[in-house]
Design goal:
Chain A: Its EC number is 3.6.4.13. Chain A: It is an enzyme of class 3 (hydrolase). Chain A: It holds the Pfam family WHD_HA2. The complex is a heterodimer. Helices cover 44% and strands 13% of the residues of chain A. By secondary structure, chain A is α/β, with parallel strands linked by helices. Chain A has six domains: 139 residues, no CATH class; 170 residues, P-loop containing nucleotide triphosphate hydrolases (Rossmann fold, 3-Layer(aba) Sandwich); 182 residues, Rossmann fold (3-Layer(aba) Sandwich), CATH 3.40.50.300; 179 residues, no CATH class; 261 residues, no CATH class; 80 residues, no CATH class. In chain A, strand 31 and strand 32 form a beta hairpin. In chain A, helix 23 runs antiparallel to helix 33, helix 24 crosses helix 28 and helix 36 packs across helix 37. Chain B contains two helices and nine strands; from the N terminus they run βββββββββαα. In chain B, strands 3-5-6-7 form a four-stranded antiparallel β-sheet, with no helix packed on it. A two-stranded antiparallel ribbon of chain B has the order 1-2. The chains are: A alpha/beta, B alpha+beta. Chains A and B meet through strand 1, helix 6 and helix 29 of A and strand 2, strand 4, strand 5, strand 6 and helix 2 of B.
Chain lengths: 1165, 121
């Protein structure tokens, strides 16, 4: 295009004759300049003339840009064509005589315009709108030019869209399953259950739902084991069924739903479907249920199958399709009494299998260093470079057992890649940040292959296109569960034949491939045919709880497709009883039924409920959410001192949950202050922001659940006071929606080309913060941030976060108490010799596992000294260096969220708690000696108190507090149940009064609990040895005279403990059952004692004294170690043992000793 | 089996030559929600499924002006030259069409789609 000339360049000409001629030419030139298509003004005028306000071309800048690009291309093309046409023009023969009259009116001379089946209206056609419009003045030739271009543009758009539609249908028709659609539907008409078995790539997951849709079914649910699959399948199926922008196809996962009334197919997780069944056991909302990936044998899937088998007779109209890989099909078919199977062949290209067993030297090297030998993997890389020219594309996928193994190979492969410049090496595992995971979908530059080092995540969950080579190590690390130790163990196993085939198949998705197996064929033959189903290797607590709440009967007799190990079931039932979720007859308790509604670990659920009792809902919500997601701390940042330094202010030496709590709150503050920087804020601290988003989502879900269940009063969203701020808020939300839409239209993340190692900041494998920054700088919109702000009320979150900063010491201690009780009995005791050890050698013991260590990310890994007993008095007492028999009031225990064994047993997410007080308040079993100075908690931790007096006092206080705590919890649960019912007005009033009373009680209880926790008593703490635990109890005694201890702990007479000996005081406390050298008869020994409250002076056994203290009428109410709500209405002389007493209840006069008096009074209670 | 009535699309378009099927929402020359475009034939139209824009439509096909067969607009089935013609009819009356169209059809025949890699059944 000629550069536009400016008017200034013209200069006056003196030649008059030439002037008019020149003027005309200039005018013409001027017009041409003015209507030059390159001028934005010209473009704008034409746009205004041709496109209406609401036209997509006018509205969307992208459309506009596309049009003008098309326009320019068309003009160039026509210039070329025009010159060529002139030469050809003469030869044109014209049309032959049409044989059919209908063809007679075809245009004689060809023009491409006749091939377009539409026509565009423009200003000249509809031009009745005001004459001052600019379009009136548009030159006609330009209008024609523009219209022609627009026509071609629209026609091009039509052709493009139709092409996509046709391609889509061709591809669908070419899928192996397309031949079977009819048969599947036919079989489903005749049977209630159909098994569709087909291997990867046959198209079952995407096509079967569409066949159902096309056949007229409208309430179809399709379950997936993974959330991510729900989203991607819903997207794909709606695209294929041409309702990408409609709502016929939707998904529903934990935090998100695109489901509406118009939705005909919904993809949802198995867990969610089970919850729907929990609510509506008949599942009335569905006509057809597709259960996908049943062969993967996930816990929930197995359970769902059992539930369905029972449900089907009750719902004869419900159709079920089980979809499976071609693995063990007969198992599923026969489980549903011989359901018919439609088997579909997969679509795989031929794959060559090469067995390359590791040589002995390499195996020896591996076993020596405990580190994986990368050489066999490098040899494959070399072999590929040798055998296949770089122009032949095709990437490599390596299956390794775990992250450590990936790390070992990564290092070596990167060195090789740097040398050859023919590889880009990328790790892939679930602990990577999302951005890093996404990198495996990027493309390598020409002549370079991707080498993806992956865990079994790429076996089924993640599908990467373009893989031609697979290396299979034959190993997998799997979580196994030890029901005895309640320990999760990550162990390396050989894979199953089914997994090996699945891994192999990844090489043949896009073309013929090669699979290198780093083991011998004989190894393969020895593999188990199928992986161990999840139900056989995980803790079943949550499952049993869910089964109980769904009233499916005794879990032991539930008709599972393959039953779980009985020991796991028993452990789970026992555990739930321990946690108070099940009662003695294994029925659901109120707290249990509530826990079953919360889709979290029992431990976390308990924490939430307890938090509500103490008005600590907001902080507990955050902590519970934080403990339910993967750690947000990235691994790569662990070695970085900058990250560590930046994180330090957020660390809490109370324990990891408090650190997470601080991180979340600080993040919310950052978000509400300068939103766009939260990403940077996280990166600087080595925090994976995605996890924080998950926390926010989970927190919200917990909150809604607690509100739904009446545990938390629903708070109305605070509406801004004035209309201005309301408007402001609405505008902000609109802007956010706009951003979200734009992002969605742009199609999200695009594939990028990977960089070779050595270029700029290296390959994308071990990406540092810098790299991520440059990558993300491109898309200026942080879509996560936008979604976050749309989903959450940031103001509310921020209020919660800032109030968290103002948590008082007391509230913090209460929070810790709530955590401790929730996490109980997950306790570990520091080893007595820790204070003399290096930081890295600190060890801890749980009841079942000795020598555990805190996880390296744990705050106590860096500052173990806060766990040591450091009291000067303690050091003076004895010369011993260890804490074993050290007397101190500051012994601590660790309570932890999980115990995970990899190469060592790790305690994950620890909190430190004061030992004595916590054990007194939480223990399921407390055993004492005669004077209560020696206590054994849960049969493994022994506490030796300095003096028996304070021991008795603490014990008595603990008993009282526990009773009141239980009571507060019961009342909270009762109120919760009440709130969910409908109620009358007068009840409402009662409720308010009751609520106020409850509130007061809780405040008083909190105060006393805190005072109790702060009590200073010197004691020693140690773990009992195996021999000691065997000879712990005196055993059943022949003397059966129970001490008369009226009014103590609510039971009027004490019964001897049948196995331990001693006496049962409460369901957790057994008095005087511990063996010892001296005090076998100490329960009979009385010493004189004066009650500080009523002045009563007489000989008491420790137990009697406790009884008196608990019921002393003179004791100040609510003052520990005071009495329960005593009724001091009887004025008494207390100098004598006996005194007159007038009972108001029975109207009689008595002479009573205090104990007799109490016994009498109890009769009236 | 209980079937619910489908909302929206009044019917399903099916090409009588290649049996491409798609639900249409309108038949005529004036696509709904668009003002500036007029179609030169009675067309089967659906909302363009590949865009969120409501005013974008997609012409699926129409009847051949000679044999009235319902055909899709795909180049393997029909062409438009001031009217819609299905390819069989064009072939039959090839001489009645301008040379450009004849050449076009010739070109189309030669590079018949060759399958790149035949997957194993």
């Amino acid at each position: 295009m000629p550069p536009p000339r400016t008017r200034d360049s013209r200069h006056h000409d003196r030649d008059h004759r030439d002037r008019s001629h020149r003027a005309a030419r200039e005018e013409e030139e001027e017009a041409r300049e003015r209507w030059d298509w390159n001028r934005p003004e010209t473009r704008r005028l034409f746009e205004e003339a041709f496109f209406r306000e609401e036209d997509s071309i006018r509205q969307s800048s992208e459309e506009r840009h596309k049009f003008w690009a098309f326009f320019e291309r068309l003009q160039r093309f026509q210039n070329i064509k025009a010159s060529r046409k002139e030469e050809e023009e003469e030869k044109g023969p014209g049309l032959a005589k049409p044989p059919i009259p209908a063809l007679a009116d075809l245009p004689r001379t060809y023009d491409p315009r006749y091939r377009i089946n539409l026509s565009v209206l423009g200003p000249d056609v509809w031009g009745s709108r005001g004459s001052d419009r600019p379009d009136r003045r548009l030159p006609p030739d330009k209008v024609a030019e523009f219209r022609k271009a627009l026509l071609h543009f629209l026609d091009f758009g039509q052709k493009q869209a139709f092409g996509r539609l046709a391609k889509l249908q061709r591809e669908r028709a070419a899928l192996p399953i397309a031949q079977y659609g009819h048969r599947i539907l036919q079989t489903l008409r005749e049977h209630q259950v159909v098994v569709v078995a087909g291997d990867t790539g046959c198209g079952k997951s995407t096509q079967v739902p569409q066949y159902l849709l096309a056949a007229g079914f409208s309430h179809v649910a399709c379950t997936q084991p993974r959330r991510i699959a729900c989203i991607s399948l819903a997207k794909r199926v709606s695209f294929e069924s041409l309702s990408q922008y409609g709502s016929r196809v939707g998904y529903q996962i934990r935090f998100e739903s695109t489901r509406s009334a118009a939705t005909k197919i919904v993809f949802l997780t198995v867990g969610l479907l089970l919850r729907q069944i929990q609510r509506e056991p008949g599942l009335p909302q569905y006509q057809v249920l597709i259960v996908d990936e049943v062969h993967e044998r996930h816990l929930h899937n197995d359970f769902l199958l059992g539930v369905l088998r029972r449900l089907l007779p009750a719902r004869p109209d419900l159709k079920v399709i089980l979809m499976s890989a071609t693995i063990n099909i007969s198992l599923f078919s026969s489980y549903f009494s011989g359901a018919p199977v439609v088997q579909v062949p997969g679509r795989l290209f031929p794959i060559t299998v090469v067995y390359q067993p590791q040589e002995a030297e390499s195996l020896a090297a591996a076993s020596k260093s405990e580190k994986l030998d990368p050489r066999p993997f490098l040899r494959v890389l070399e072999a590929i470079d040798h055998k296949y020219p770089p122009e032949e594309r095709g990437d490599l996928l390596v299956f390794l057992s775990g992250m450590a193994e990936i790390g070992a190979v990564l290092e070596a492969a990167q060195a090789y890649a740097a040398h050859t410049q023919r590889w880009v090496v990328l790790p892939l595992h679930s602990a990577l940040s999302v951005a890093d995971q996404d990198k495996v979908f990027d493309v390598a530059p020409p002549g370079v292959r991707k080498c993806i080092l992956s865990t079994n995540i790429a076996e089924t969950s993640v599908t990467i296109d373009g893989i031609r080579f697979v290396v299979d190590s034959g190993k997998v690390k799997e979580m196994s569960y030890d029901p005895q130790a309640k320990l999760q163990r990550l162990q390396e196993f050989w894979i199953s034949q089914a997994s090996a085939e699945q891994r192999k198949g990844r090489a043949g998705r896009t073309g013929p491939g090669v699979c290198f197996r780093l083991y011998a064929e004989s190894d393969y033959d020895a593999f188990a045919p199928y992986p161990v189903p999840e139900i056989r290797r995980v803790a079943l607590d949550a499952l049993v709880l869910q089964m109980k709440s769904m009233s499916v009967g005794d879990p032991r007799t539930f008709p599972f497709i393959e039953p779980p190990p009985p020991a796991s079931l028993e452990t789970a039932i026992l555990y739930l009883q321990d946690q108070g979720a099940l009662d003695g007859s294994e029925a659901l308790t109120p707290i249990g039924s509530l826990l079953a509604q919360l889709p979290v670990d029992v431990v976390i659920g308990k924490m939430l409920i307890l938090g509500c009792v103490f008005r600590l809902a907001e902080p507990v919500l955050t902590v519970a959410a934080a403990l339910s997601v993967q750690s947000p701390f990235t691994r790569s940042a662990q070695g970085s001192p900058e990250c560590a330094a930046a994180r330090r202010p957020l660390e809490s030496d109370q324990g990891d949950p408090f650190t997470l709590f601080n991180v979340f709150n600080a993040w919310v503050q950052v978000k509400s202050e300068r939103s766009s920087n939260s990403r940077k804020w996280c990166r600087r601290r080595g925090i994976e922001e995605h996890r924080l988003y998950e926390m926010a989502n989970l927190r919200r879900q917990f909150k809604e659940l607690l509100e739904d269940h009446g545990l938390l009063a629903g708070v109305q969203a605070a509406t801004p006071r004035d209309s201005h701020s309301r408007l402001q808020q609405r505008r902000e939300r609109q802007a956010l929606y706009q951003l979200k839409r734009q992002h969605e239209e742009a199609g999200g993340r695009r594939r990028k080309v990977l960089r070779l190692q050595g270029e700029a900041d290296g390959g994308s494998s071990d990406e540092d913060a810098e790299g991520t920054a440059t990558r993300e700088a491109g898309d200026s919109v942080d879509i996560q941030d936008v979604k976050f702000k749309l989903r959450h009320n940031l103001e509310q979150l921020q209020a919660a976060a800032s109030s968290a900063q103002d948590l008082t010491r007391d509230q913090l201690s209460l929070l810790k108490l709530v955590l401790g009780r929730g996490l109980y009995p997950q306790l570990a005791i520091p080893d007595p010799f820790n204070s003399g050890r290096k930081d890295s050698d600190q060890i801890f013991h749980t009841q079942a596992k000795q020598g555990a260590v805190v996880h390296p990310t744990c705050v106590f890994a860096n500052s173990p000294e806060v766990l040591h007993v450091q009291e000067p008095e303690a050091r003076d007492k004895e010369g011993s260096r260890d804490d074993k028999d050290k007397m101190s009031s500051k012994h601590q225990l660790l309570t932890f969220v999980s115990l995970l064994e990899t190469n060592k047993p790790y305690l994950v997410n620890c909190v430190r708690i004061p030992a004595l007080q916590s054990l007194l308040l939480f223990s399921r079993s407390l055993d004492t000696n005669g004077d209560c100075s020696r206590l054994v908690a849960d049969g493994w931790l022994q506490l030796q108190l300095v003096d028996s007096e304070s021991a008795v006092r603490l014990l008595a206080a603990a008993l009282r507090l526990r009773a009141r705590w239980e009571n507060a919890l019961d009342r909270q649960l009762a109120r919760q149940a009440w709130r969910r019912r409908d109620h009358r007005d007068e009840e409402e009033e009662e409720e308010v009064a009751e609520s106020l009373a409850h509130c007061k009680d809780v405040v008083a209880l909190s105060g006393e609990l805190l005072q109790f926790m702060a009590s200073k008593v010197s004691y020693s703490l140690r773990r009992l040895t195996g021999l000691e635990t065997q000879n712990l109890y005196v055993g059943p005694q022949t003397i059966t005279t129970a001490p008369s201890l009226p009014g103590l702990f609510g039971s009027s007479s004490l019964s001897p403990h049948p196995t331990k000996g001693g006496y049962i005081v409460t369901d957790f406390l057994t008095y005087n059952c511990l063996t010892s050298d001296s005090d076998l008869y100490s329960d009979c020994l009385r010493t004189f004692w004066t009650c500080p409250h009523c002045g009563l002076h007489m000989p008491f056994t420790p137990l009697e004294r406790m009884a008196h203290e608990n019921t002393c009428p003179e004791a100040p109410p609510d003052g520990p170690p005071g009495a329960e709500d005593a009724t001091p209405e009887v004025p008494q002389k207390t100098s004598a043992l006996q005194r007159p007493y007038h009972c108001e209840a029975c109207g009689k006069d008595f002479i009573f000793t205090p104990t007799e008096l109490l016994r009498h009074r109890r009769q009236h209670m | 089996m209980a079937c619910e009535l489908e909302h929206g699309p009044p019917g399903v378009f099916e090409c009588q030559l290649c049996s491409l099927t798609a639900p249409y929402s309108y038949i005529g020359q004036k696509p709904p929600d668009t003002e500036s475009v007029i179609l030169l034939e009675e067309s089967y139209i659906m909302k363009d499924p590949f865009t969120a824009n409501k005013d974008r439509f997609l012409v699926l096909g129409s009847r051949c002006s000679l044999c009235s067969r319902l055909v899709c607009v795909g180049p393997e089935c029909s062409l438009f030259y001031s009217k819609r013609f299905c390819l069989p009819c064009v072939q039959e009356n090839i001489d009645a069409f301008p040379r450009e169209i004849q050449q076009d059809l010739e070109k189309r025949k030669v590079p018949a789609k060759k399958p790149v890699n035949k997957p194993r059944p």
